[in-house]
Every structure is written in C-alpha cells, then in structure tokens.
Amino acid sequence: MTEFARIAGLLAGITSFASFLLYYISIVRGKTIPNRATWFILTVVGTLICTSYYSLGARDTIWIPVSYVIGPLITFLLSIKYGEGGWTNFDRWCLFGSGVSLFFWWLFDSALLALLINILIDLFGMLPTLRKSYLRKESEEPFPWLITFLSCMLNILAIETWDFSIWIYPIYMLIINGAVFLLLYYPEKIRSLKLSLVPRV
Is 35 helix (H, G, I), strand (E, B) or coil? Predict the structure, then answer.
C-alpha cells in the first residue's frame, strides 16, 4: 500500500460522502422526497457490494463502497420522516437479486460472484436515472453528480493491483457516474454525437 494510493482512496470516499450531504440538505428542505423502499434496497445492495469487495482484498479503493453503505442508510433513516412509502416490482426484484447473490456467495464461496451480481443490480437501478438525465436534464441537480464523478476519478488513482476483482467496481462506478455527468453537463454534445452515429440515407 503506497501513501499516494491510500490518500487518493480516502479522498475518494470523503468526496463521495460529500455528495450525499448535499442530498440530505435537499431532503430536509423539502426539495427532495426519498422513497423508503428504494433507499432500503440501495443500503442492502451497497452493504453486499462493500462486504464482498472487501473480502476480495480491496483496501485503498474500499472507501467509496463504504460511503455507499452509510450514505443510503442515512437517506433511508431520513425517509422515515421526510420520505414516502411504497414498493415497486423493481424494488422487490432488486431485493430478491441481492438475496440470490448472498446465497451464491455461500454456496460457491465466491465473493466475486456476489459482487458482480450486485453491480448488475446497481446498473439496472441506474438506468432510469440515465434515461431521465438524457430526456429531462432539469430533473437532476448536476453539482452532486460532478462531485460523485470526481470521487470516482480519485478512486481510480487508488488502484494498486489491477486484478479484475479489484478494478471492476471502480471502473464500473467511473463509467456509470461519468455517463450521468456527461448527460447533465454536456447534453448538446451527447445529442450531436448520437446524430452523427445515425447513418444518413
């Protein structure tokens, strides 16, 4: 563990949690109404990602996964007072998927399998946000996503061992959060790129 990687990883976690602080302020001010079920699911998924990732040997890059346990947990607790209830079929499937990953972890003694399943669940959970960011830019606050993207970049610098089990989560987070960041900050360029890829007839 080099000092540079340790500091980069720690800064990544702090920066990641800072984006949640902005979200908490928005909740308390009544600008955001979190769904209890959604944030409960995110807490469960985040916990399984964090524990399986740590079991695979992640150390310097563990702080963002830690923030994705603490951050959603606090949001869930705030949602008890400031949020709304209700379960969707998607919520139930996500919870079921997390249970399956835990079973496979136990059955095959494979923390990597559990990590990959929960990354996939997280990806499905991000798809509506990506769609909304593309179609309705004004529905998302851009600045927290900028902070999140910066934290993901810092986390890449914390990777010392480029084993698949170590780099897969930081790379996934960089790509998925980078996509939202680009959609919110550079929507015109994304649309022009899409148009340039469409073949002319």
Answer: strand
Q: Which of 116, 109, 129 is nearest to 169 (CA)?
A: 116
157 neighbors 4 (Cβ within 8 angstroms): yes
What are the pLDDT digits (tens) for 33-84?
A: 888 988 999 899 999 999 999 999 999 999 999 999 999 999 999 999 999 9
| Contact status, residue 60 vs residue 1, Cβ threshold 8 Å | yes
Answer positive or negative: Cα dihedral of 151, 153, 157, 160: positive
What's the CA gap between 64 and 155, in Å, rounded?
8
Residue for token digits 């610098």?
A: 157
pLDDT digits (tens, 9 = 90+) for 95-140: 889 999 999 999 999 999 999 999 999 998 888 888 888 887 776 7
Q: Which two tokens stand for residue 41?
A: 């699911």
Tokens of 45: 């998924």
Answer yes or no: pTM beyond 0.85.
yes
197 vs 12: CA distance, rounded Å: 34
